[in-house]
Design goal:
disordered N terminus; alpha/beta; five-stranded mixed beta sheet; 5 strands; about 120 residues; single chain; Glutaredoxin
């Protein structure tokens, strides 16, 4: 996946890192972050679901993915100890989370109750 998706406008799932994380959160009212790792089977299971929900809600919610292996300080900052963890940020602050391969309904419920 290329880093071209790191622009701050709606239209792409943003690859988050320590360099752009705080900027993305401050520039967008609602941000859903997928904390994941390449070796994580449940993370791979959730990837197409995350993509489908991005297509459905991407005009209202900013979607981002953060590799916890490459960005451990951010994962620790938000108490992410198991992956996948999905955190919805509202006005830059964590508002809610879902941990594990919660499926499409679980992730969609997280989005709907926090908009």
């Amino acid at each position: 996946m290329s880093n071209e998706s790191s622009s701050s406008h709606f239209g792409n799932i943003v690859e988050l890192s320590e360099k752009n994380f705080d900027d993305i959160l401050s520039d967008n009212k609602f941000v859903l972050v997928d904390f994941w790792a390449t070796w994580c089977g449940p993370c791979q299971f959730m990837l197409p679901i995350f993509d489908r929900l991005f297509k459905k809600y991407g005009d209202k919610v900013k979607f981002g993915r953060l590799n916890v292996d490459d960005n451990q300080a951010i994962a620790m900052r938000f108490d992410v100890y198991a992956i996948p963890t999905f955190v919805i940020f509202v006005d830059g602050q964590p508002a809610d989370r879902a941990v594990g391969a919660v499926g499409e309904n679980g992730l969609e419920n997280l989005l709907q109750k926090n908009q």
